[in-house]
Structures are given as structure tokens and as C-alpha cells.
Amino acid sequence: MKVPTITGDGVRLRGLTKGDVDDLLVAYNDWDLRRFLPPLPIPFTRGHAEDYVEDVVPRMFAAGGGFWAVADPVTDRLLGGAGIDRVAPERGQAEIGYWTAPHARGRGVATAAVRALTGHAVEAGFARVELLTHWENTISQRVALAAGFTREGVRRSALPDRDGGRDDLVVFTRLADDPPEPVERLLPDLPGGELSDGVVTLRPLLPEHLDFHADLNNQPDVVATSVPPVPKSRREMELRCDRSQAHWLAGERADMVILDAATGTPAGEIGLYYLEPPLAQAMIGYSMLPAWRGRGFPTRAAQLIALWAFAETGIARLIAGVLPTNLGSQRVLEKAGFQREAYMRSRLPGPDGRRSDDLQYALIAEDTLAQLSGVKG
Fold first, then answer.
1. What domains lie within the chain, and their CATH numbers?
2. For 155-168, how does the pLDDT look when each residue is reduced to its tens digit (9 = 90+)?
3. Fewer CB near the last or first residue (10 Å), C or N of the chain?
4. 293-315 burial string, b = 16+ CB within 10 Å, else e?
């Protein structure tokens, strides 16, 4: 079968050959790759690789899809793979997938391959191309955004896993008339991966922070000021940590750990929730372990996140809500420059089915700029 060659920026998509078997073996036995490809047999043997080249891939083309080797245009060495699968020609829709070999990661190979293959699919008449990723596969989500795909939502229980369960998948889509340029993110990465004033450091919440996150969010007073004020299960906390980076990439929220800058010890958390992009308004919330309270950490964290939000995003207004009885949190916000704006009755779900009042504070970009000018003056 004649496989069309597709050229991209620094890559060439061609048919898979027997000369690719050794690199295919290494790639398909790499845990970082196969953890998101549950259909792959473990271990992936030379026999599997040879059958893949000689039988599986030809059958994909015969079924209307296809699989291309992503090769170095100079050496022709296998860099990865990209394919079209689950084609629905009657709806003008296709789904693409891809992977990058361990030796070729960090070079933009996947983004170039996805752009090239998507362009090929559009030229073939497809009006809609989907790309699905696991929640935890944020590298793949970055590729999707860089290749011009827009996040649309989550397809629940879309893929069987290795343990007999089913995984949710995040859906990205590029339409035929969408530009191939990267999709602009509402919440960019932190500069250098963190924010710091020398006393506190803010870094993204990651799966490795689960035990700390669980300890913090099991504190009775943290539970009492949560919305709703009920304890979270270990599974809920695990999902919060596992999916925090996906939510950040989606522009929905930025969850961060507050660290003691001197020791690197986690002391608390602060989050920015971008609930109203059309209004350029976001909300912050924070909590601290008891041992770290009284040191001004949450005030510093709120100031750092406000400066980042106003300087690096389209956010023009930050809000925060506190219980009228939470005097400590009110002092944190006032020291950080927030001004009290409203007393909202019965706004929040409270304990035992009751409702709680909420004090609303706000900080706008102009306030922060004025504070900075005062400090410089």
C-alpha cells in the first residue's frame, strides 16, 4: 500500500518500515508512553513490533484511517508516530493520536507532527479533527494547544484502562477553518515555574503534593471555611492534585502551594479561579497549616498572585469572599490591598443545611499599580 508522505516543520511523516522495529520496541516499552496507551501489550515484544508494521498498520489504512512514522527528514530515524483513527466520514470528523520516542522528546516533534497530520486531514475533506488526552497527560494537552486545538470538554469513561475500569478523556478539537497557530492561554505558566518574594514561594500544585494537600484540607477550621463546608474524600483530593495542571492549561484555575522560601517546606495553598473571563474577573482563596499561621505568609501569597495575574493575564479585578466571623482572613485581605465591597446574606452553603453570609473583598489592577508607585516613590 502506497502511504502518502507528509512534510512538517522539521519532521517527515512516512510509512512505517521494518527498519523502524528497534526504535518501535524501545518506544512502546517506555512507561511514560504506554501509561496513556492501555491497549499496548506488556511487554511489547519484537513479534508484536513486526506484526504492527506488517499487519496492524495496513489494516488501519484499509479501514480509512492510517498511521505514519514521524521521521527525521535528514537521518530518517524514527522520532515518533502519528495516526488517524475512529474516522467518521459521514460526519466529516476524524480523531488523531500521536507519540514521541524517548530520544526525541523536548524538540517540538509532536507539535510539528500534529500540525502536519491535521493539515492533511483537512485537505482530505474532514471538517473537524478531535484529539483526546488523559487528564494527567498535560504534555499532550500542551501539544494540542500549540497545534491550534481548542479544549471543548471532557468525555466521561471514554477509554478502558488496564485494570478493568474506564478513564475520562479531555477533548480538544480543531475545525477546518481554525488557524494552526497556538491557542492563546488565559492563564500562562509562572515565570521560571514559580513566584517568590524571598520569604514565600508559590509553585503549582502537583500530584506529589497529595499528602500535604490532604493534611491541610483535613484541618477542621479549613473544612469549616470551605465551600461547601464538608470534608473531602481521599479520592477527591487525589483528583484535585492529579488534574490541577489540566485545569491550569484550560484557563479555569491556578492552584499553588505556598512554600517557606528558606526551607522549601509546604505551608499552605492559594488558588486563583478564573470563573468570569468575559468580565476579566477572578477569585482567590487560601488556607494555611496551623504551624505556619501568624507569619504573614497568606498576605504575601495574595500579593504575589495579584501581581502575576495583573501583569501576565487579562484579569483586571480579583475578588475574595470570607465569613463574617473569619477576622484573620479579613486582615489578610486588607493587608494585601483588597477593599471590602459588600455584605452578602445567605450566599454560601453552610453546615447542617443552613446558609452562611459572605463578606466580599476586591482588588483591581489600578489599586496594585498605585501601591507599587507609592513604594517606589
1. 6-175 (3.40.630.30), 191-376 (3.40.630.30)
2. 999 999 888 899 99
3. C
4. eeeebbbbbbbbbbbbbbeebeb
